[in-house]
Amino acid sequence: QVxxxxxxxxxxxxxxxxxxxxxxxxxxxxxxxMGWYRQAPGKQRELVATITSGGSTNYAxxxxxxxxxxxxxxKNTVLLQMNSLKPEDTAVYYCNLxxxxxxxxxxxxxxxxxxSS
Length: 117
Fold this sequence. Notes:
The protein is an all-beta fold. It is built from no helices and eleven strands.
């Protein structure tokens, strides 16, 4: 079993920065892909960024150049540094761990990010 706990959300003004952190506990395999998704009110959950244990990353076009995902395999943590935040980044952000061999997703409880003046 895997548990994911997010932290770091909050209220920030447009143009500001936030850093989200996700700590994973349980058995984590090197093949597991970790990442962040977000869901805004009335919208479907969407990919923000993912990272493999080898450091390969994938970003949504809407966040490229503004967000950076990183991963510490020894500590089983994944970070999302968000810069130049826009009101449209407002959403609940969810940490995700995907176990490819099982095609199974683990999810955190979510953390609210609000970008507003």
